[in-house]
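Input:
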Amino acid sequence: MYAYKEYDQQLLNERVEQYRDQTQRFFKGELSEDEFLILRLQNGLYVQRHAPLLRVAVPYGMLNTEQVRKLAHIARTYDKGYAHISTRQNVQFNWPSMENVPDILGELASVQMHAVQTSGNCIRNTTTDQFAGVTANEVTDPRPYCEIIRQWSTLHPEFAYLPRKFKIAVTAATDEDRAAIRFNDVGLRIIKNDADEIGFEVFIGGGLGRTPLAGSLIKPFLAPKDLLSYLEATLRVYNRYGRRDNKYKARIKILVKALTPEVFGKKVDEEWQHLRDGALDLPNTEIEQMKAYFPEPAYETLENNPASLVDAKSESGAFSIWLRQNTNEHKKAGYQIVTLSLSPTSVAPGDVTDNQLDVIADLADKYSFGEIRNTHNQNIVLADVKQEDLYDLWKQLQTHGFATANIHTINDIICCPGGDFCALANAKSLPIADQIQKRFDDYDFVYDIGEISLNISGCMNACSHHHIGNIGILGVDKKGKEFYQVSLGGDAGFSASVGKIIGPSFNENDVADVVETIIQHYIASRIEGETFLMTYQRIGMAPFKEKVYAKNN
Amino acid sequence: MPKIIKNREVVEDQWTTIDSPEQDLATTDDSANIIVELAYWLENKVSLIARKGKVGVLLLGSDEPELFHQELDSIDLIAINFPKFGDGRGYSIARLLCERYGYQQEIRAVGDVLRDQLRFMERCGFNAYALRADRHIEEALASFSAISVDYQSDVVEKKPIYNRRP
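Output:
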């Protein structure tokens, strides 16, 4: 993990004091609401329905145990005893008071954490594959590049007041895009060219919200030394020409679409010709130095499938199922990647209590080199667990409510805080998640359904990425009543597609019925080995639509 | 005379902005330093340059340096307007003027300018700032030194931090 140098820490400490001063000037009336709004947003502070919401940055999802214990302490001391893992791998606190925020930021800074640029119209936290560095299926570890981007984008003097927020995601995976790069403003996919050189495919203009679009491939191969100059050129074109008259048309995707990807790409190239081979050139020595911050942990030489694991599997069916659902292959023999489910029934997906955070830190220290990762699916990953420890770990995860074997199942719902907490929401989302999880409580059936993603957003801002859920649910407000629109066929992966709306929206009480009808039709129609998405892609929307509305009438 | 910040000091403003030059220029002292909108300057540059006083231009958000950079030698000051403090186009414009077109005279931020922006503006090439009249201009000076670490290369720091490290 990147360890702060003296100047990184100094910047953070100064930022805390700067924000403390801004808060004091606001309370003294020297800053208006509108002025303070922009300043506090750049420090992750929203004002929500009940209380402010403080979003803490977790760069590319990586945490150490000291940081997790600090988050537990903050949840206990300044909040109501819990925190929320966001779909951008960040951590949110829902109940801090505005007066306490400077102190919370001070606490965070003491463990090299902050809330810089976690909201507002600036470059947000860079996200990546939660299996970065531990999966066998990647070209190289993307995290050194993420850290390079983090530093370049932190308090960038030119890009603090963009037309709208700006999100960058990086993946180096070859099997599956776990970072949804096609739905970011800039998506970077690390590839190798025919000469075996590393470079980036640059996708620009992806995003969700009101106008869901997959990013267009603007640059098929960008050399690492050009990474920052090309990003700077892209941001400059956006800063100058992105729309500022209408916040719903202000994201870079609208500019790319209006100009066409070809013309947009040319404009960036023109700007880039001035910037490349200049101060922003990324020297190889810097890339190598950054790589040294992400060394492999001290792995032991082990065999896959040790006897203890084989025994445990044959003794416990529940353990075998958990192993299949919630763990993934590791690049090192004898190790396994473990995902802790934060979406058991009747708990808001992504919520963790202060005690759970402490437990996670203890487990990470004991089993996974003291390192924790947040996922954009709102779960937590212990990336380096010895296979011989898996059974012990599973037992403890069960005790603390993290062993629900539902990863990538219909119960592993991605869900925003919705109308219960969020000031922007049109409708509640958490009760819908609860309703669906209760409907699908027979786990034999859940596993039979197989791999599927279900995302619920409480409004068009699409924080839960409902457009790219295989099943997407969107809360809408019609004359003061809450309705739910259902879409099918979304795909967050490399093939990137936006789901299609099935038809008129449904009453709150009917959502679980509708989802069940859709699932039953998939089960009846699937061919051996097909996931829900594959069946949908083969047979199309029409039969699902027919079933769903026939039943409703 | 109103005060502005120039090169991190509070000084008296030596310039007058002429909002309606057609009406007001005739009654303005010929030796006064004036600022007029770029469009007016481009149309009347011969007579404006002939004045005894200096002449600067005011850029609005849509004025592009690419379209008038050949004229920079004859422009004595450039004021960049911030219609709202959240409108960040001016930062890119200032960098282009400084870094691409080598403009070395005063670049002044005008309009909705808050102290919290001053350091970023300076790093993008501004050297003068007209804060709104209701702001404490002396206190604002502290904002320049609130953050002392810059990761990026910019007008002030020519190299990114990884090329500045010992």
